[in-house]
Amino acid sequence: MNIRKWFFLFWSTMAVGAVVTTIVGSMMQWTDRSFGFVGVEAAGFNAGMMALVGLLFGAFSQMGFFSYLTLNYIALSVLRKGYLWNALQAYTVLFALGGIGYLLYQDRASLNSWIFWVLPLGLAIAAYGVAYYKSKLTNNNAFIPTLFLQVVVTVIESWKALQGDGANVNAMFFMIVPMFACNAYQILLLHRLVRKEQTADSASNAKPAV
């Protein structure tokens, strides 16, 4: 991937983060008037703050995305067997979903009683949908890596909102949904950027017909 394509992916991911964060935050503010930033209730001000936070979410999501690509490259180089790495990723996905449920179940006294099973189940269904669509766009080998990115990497990126004394349902969805959307956008776009570059390289290396 060249600098121009990376630059496009970087800014477009930040734009996705800004838009999704603003939409999610506005919906939460509409249903819960106490939800806002720095105690200011002005809708326009809060929308601008949400967009700025969304830009940060997009940048943070891209850091996690490229970290996963690096991890994927190293793991395949070390394990040599693609199915072993896929099996490890699948196990980690199940562990992460179970870990979220257990973590939220422990904090059920301060959270809604349904969140400990709704959040992992919703994340699993949404991740399955993205992974299924990705495998249709490319091949079946992309299913497990996409599932891992959408579950495990999203959880890691959103960990701050999932734990701690200040954890609440609004904060969880406010961070998880944009992170999930940014990760989905990147993984669904990646093969198009790489494919164009590979096609160009193949054309430049081709020998002219005699």
From TrEMBL:
> Which InterPro entries does this UniProt record tie to the protein?
KinB-signalling_activ
What are the GO BP annotations of this UniProt entry? positive regulation of sporulation resulting in formation of a cellular spore
What are the record keywords, sorted? Membrane, Transmembrane, Transmembrane helix
Its transmembrane ranges are 7-28, 48-71, 83-105, 111-130, 142-159, 171-190
The protein here is known as KinB signaling pathway activation protein
State the organism of origin: Paenibacillus taihuensis
